[in-house]
């Protein structure tokens, strides 16, 4: 009899615990399961981190895996430029010549210039982000120094975010000297900028204003969003790799997101990042509802 009573008591406790699971917890679990299914549909490796910038809620899958970044690494480079300008090592208005050793192929326009190029540091920043110009990027890496970029990232709590080579440096790439980060660190970097906590509010906002000028057609995240939703973002792509760091400005509920793929082949679906973006957007949109699921609008 005693054993029977204990068993009944245990069952009641278990049922009570189950009943205490909230609707939102079930909704989040469903979202995570859907995201795992999307990620599992690809033969490549995919990582995700999304952070609700209002509540702090996190969704992460493979979020601490280190991925090659391609051009998304240009965000930490931009941050270091602003940091050193704030420290008065130079002014963003200072003029720098484009030297031959920094001119490389790939994205951008500076490698097509035939006359000598002399631009302000700020304009090199704009070209690095808006056109993903690799020659502008190499100029800025040389200006601020890779060690300084990495030291700043380390001091901010992002030890896996590293610049280890200039753009289009195949010998360095063959030595596995890649530019790296993780979905978790990338999303937290975007969160830091959103909160105005990198250098100061003005500097953080200016960095984000540059990222907002990126052509929206370059964003894979945008492929999963309504056309009226704004983004601050930087994508990256190279052989076998796709990345994108961003802030999605869902009305009154913005969120940071980083999605990364590597080991991509011809069998990898081309819309994985867009599909992930849509599912994350749908989830955070659902949270703009009452306790009982009445949607309040976007």
Automatic annotation (TrEMBL):
Enzyme Commission number: 3.5.2.6
Q: Tell me any Pfam family this protein matches.
A: Beta-lactamase2
GO:BP terms for this protein? beta-lactam antibiotic catabolic process; response to antibiotic
Judging by the UniProt lineage, the source's domain of life is Bacteria
Q: Which reaction does it catalyse?
A: a beta-lactam + H2O = a substituted beta-amino acid
Q: What class of enzyme is it?
A: hydrolase
Signal peptide (from-to): 1-19
What sequence ranges are listed for the domain Beta-lactamase class A catalytic? 48-260
Q: Any idea which UniProt keywords this protein has?
A: Signal
Q: PANTHER family, per this entry?
A: BETA-LACTAMASE, BETA-LACTAMASE-TYPE TRANSPEPTIDASE FOLD CONTAINING PROTEIN
UniProt lists the family membership as follows: Belongs to the class-A beta-lactamase family.
Q: What is this protein called?
A: beta-lactamase
State the species of origin.
Daejeonella rubra
